[in-house]
User: What shape does this take?
Amino acid sequence: MTEIGYYNYYNIQGRRNVDTPDDWYQKMVNQYESDDLRTKDEMLNPYSDLNKSTHALDEKLASWAEGMRTKFSNADDVDKYLCKKYFGQERIGYTMKDQEPEKYAMYKNDLNMVMYGTVKAYQFNLKDPRLTSADEYDKAEEKAKHDSISNNMAHLLENNGIDIGNNSLLFSINPYSGVNGIQIDGIDDLNMKSILLQALDKNNNSTNLLHYGMQSQNVDSDARTKYRAYTSLKEYTGLDLSELILKDGEYYTADGQGVNELLKEGIESSNSVGLDFKGAAFNYVKDLLNKVAEKGWNLMPDLDIKIGYSKENGFYTLGNSYEV
Assistant: This one.
């Protein structure tokens, strides 16, 4: 049986290499059905019409692509064959992409299928008529994010033996106290509440739930700035912004070290920031710190997210059932 999944069959330089075909669809299903709280957009929802049709196209073309790889020993010959198949010539003219977008999309996706084992590889093209249309994507993405994290929460509750019945839960999240900053209403059983808090303390669940709450409701701009300054400084220096000393518009540690210098050192040593972007990262965080210094930590509102959850609606903003 032909294996389906990403693989660099022609060893194209600069493309990802894997030991065995990487089944993108099964990985997507596994993540979607997990109890890690994450918001996933429409492109990461395995049950969206687009991803189901993409997976179906992979399955349909798998045997054909395997035969093509047997027939053609190099990527250039594959490209020439597909150009002739769709455009009647061995190379694509400059204007063909715009003049015949559906043919071009089929050509690109077929090329992906032969060279990488899935149409969903490099320059995956949504204009392919064999795929479900990707129109109205903003609305679909909003629904996908809601459905995915709500689905994860359902699994989290089930996997931890928590049945809320027809009750609704209310999560209140203050990001400055870790899991201790989460309050849960709607569960009277203290043991169950403790188990749920422990589950939220794993796999960045509480942070991801906070971020979803920030995305799905209106948030005060000063509270957002305060949160970003706090988390950015924490990431690069480990310092707690609320505990620092403000003097002449700049922050210092209790032992007199300048925070700007510590921030610069932290970003310079960080592997998460590319060499070309370290200066921009420093300026970004420094600007956030300056805004907090100007207004005052205690005079800016805390980011305090409240979000509801029920079996019927999944997560919802208070006062509204979820609607798209």
In short: Residues 1-137 form one domain. The chain is about 50% helix and 5% strand. Residues 225 and 303 are 9 Å apart (CA to CA).
